Each structure stands twice: as C-alpha cells, then as structure tokens.
Amino acid sequence: MNLPGFLASLALLASVTAGAAPNNTVEEGTVLWWDLTCNFFVVQTPSGFTLFEWMSGPKPAPGHAMEGPLEGFGPRNLVNKTADNQVTLAYTEVHSTSKRWVAGKVPGFCKRKKDFVAQVERERAADRPPGSGPSAAQPATQ
C-alpha cells in the first residue's frame, strides 16, 4: 500500500473509532446469574440485561449490586457495592432488553448455562396467559 492510501485508511479508522466511543454512563444493576466454571455473569440493568466475563477483582454472585458502565462493549471497571465497593474488572459481551436473548449468548462451555436458560424459559412461560403457549390449539377460522 502506498503512503497516501495508508494515510486515508488511517483517517477512516480514526473517524470510525471516534464515533464508537464507549458508553461511560454509570448505572446500578443486580447480578442475576454467575457461573464459576467459565467466569461469565449476567447483570440486570435499568435498561435490560448485560452479559459480562469476569476478569479480576471480587467475583460477583447472584444478588450483588454492581455499579458502573453496564452497557456497551469492552472492558469495564465495575464497583461491587456488595463487596465493600471493591472494583471488579469485567468485559462486556452483549447487552439487550431481552433476557432470553442474553441467556442464549452465554457460551456453551459454561456448565450452568442450561440451568439459566431453563430458568428464563420458566419465567417466560409463567408470564404467558393460560392457553397462549405454543402447544395451545389454535381455533380454526373460516
């Protein structure tokens, strides 16, 4: 690649990454699920659900209050309010308003993934009105 082409590519990369600034909004959420076998955990935030990979610091547990930038993508310093305000370094994997979608994004090698997905499905089934599930017979229309 010639120098002008390289510089043009570098300028394009700089403009793209500048537009993708990390979300540094501080929110508070609650840990819903944690799997020690793979170091992944899910936090319920005011705007949905976030899947994190734990990297260092106090390990979160279900019920722990976490504070920090709970959305976006990439490394995050989260304050574990339940563990004496110690900082937990975690990597944001995905965020969504759909708990079911986030549960499906938990890596398959996590031994407790099936339990979490089953829990989410039970909650979803409990929220459906009776007779509205996929097994409910649909009346014939004419």
Walk me through this protein's architecture.
The structure is a single chain. This protein has helices at residues 3-19, 99-105, 113-127, and strands spanning 27-35, 40-45, 48-56, 65-68, 74-80, 86-96. It is built from three helices and six strands. The protein has a six-stranded antiparallel β-barrel. With 142 residues, the protein is of the alpha+beta class. The chain starts with a helix and ends in a 15-residue tail after the last helix. A hairpin with a 5-residue loop joins strand 4 and strand 5 (74-80). The protein has a domain at 27-125.
Key traits:
3 helices; disordered N terminus; 142 residues; 27% helix; 6 strands; alpha+beta; single chain; disordered C terminus; six-stranded antiparallel β-barrel
Provide the succession of SSEs: HEEEEEEHH
Distance between the termini: 67 Å
Sequence of strands across the biggest β-sheet: 1-2-3-6-5-4
User: Total number of helical segments?
Assistant: 3
Question: Residue share in helices?
Answer: 25-40%
Our estimate of the beta-strand percent is 25-35%
Note poorly predicted spans.
3-21, 135-142
- Which value, in Å, is the CA radius of gyration? 20 Å
- Based on Cα principal axes, name the global outline: globular
Structural class by helix and strand composition: alpha+beta
**Number of DSSP strands?**
6
Q: Determine the mean pLDDT.
A: 81
The largest pleated sheet is described as: 6 strands, antiparallel, barrel
